[in-house]
Protein: ABC transporter ATP-binding protein
Amino acid sequence: MNSPIVTVRDVSKRFRTMTALDGVSFELRRNGIYGLLGRNGAGKTTLMRILTGQQFASAGTVTVFGAAPHENERVLRQVTFIKESQRYPDTFRVRDVLFAGRLLFPQWDERFARDLVHDFQLPVKRQVKKLSRGMLSALGVVVGLASRAPLTLFDEPYLGLDAVSRQLFYDRLLADYAEFPRTVVLSTHLIDEVSDLIEHVLLIERGRLVLDEDAEALRGQVVTLTGPASAVDALAANADELHREHLGSLTRATVRGRVEAGQARAAGVELAPVSLQQLVVRITTADLKEHVS
Ligand SMILES: Nc1ncnc2c1ncn2[C@@H]1O[C@H](COP(=O)(O)OP(=O)(O)OP(=O)(O)O)[C@@H](O)[C@H]1O
Structure:
């Protein structure tokens, strides 16, 4: 990852009285796989729509490849946005969508597109409106991958895919990314599934960005401490406590911060890593929000 290709500064979006995004700021760097995580209605789609020029922010600025994205052809030719509810013209067949991809995206790889169509067993002659939900998702995935756009956003396009096809998507994405690095944003609820894939985590909670962290750094930052309450308290004293539960005579605390493994062992406290999914659940639990900086 190096220079930013997207800069979001203090962006808010209001729909009448509803605030969908509230003072969001972050950067997306050239080449990297970002996980855009958050609960239902957190503001993920709204943010992606603003990044791709489909919606205006109510306040703040968005710069994509050095310019505002709205109606900017130079910028938008470098961007692919695949959403679950992707619409295509009524008469389009699968092959028409692929043809359009070839025309629209300068980096489109026709051979890769055909391989993907084969992998996902898509019927090229079938009208898009007659595809099953999973096939429609697969078509979105094919376009998103084969476009090789320098900024590719997937807004849960794979919800219709079964587990085997989702794995195929993750595998193809990783393999192609290794050969043709670009900036990929995956918005998803299936955090466990993508946790090995994503390099950076952006977590939105009720319109606010509550986490903007390197995934690897995050993995070591949050742990659970299980042991006698007094020993857990002592170890947790210098960390942010995200959650606490009692298991008979033992206490289990989920904390964010540095805890020395040797110290924990000596105090009879079991130290265990927290999965990204657990971490997100803990952080987005409403009454614990004050623990998140
Ligand atoms: N056009 C609109 N008019 C009014 N409210 C809207 C509009 N678009 C989005 N919202 C509201 O903004 C909030 C954020 O919606 P958004 O679709 O961005 O969430 P999301 O994180 O993508 O959710 P999900 O994971 O459920 O798809 C929601 O409360 C939603 O109802």
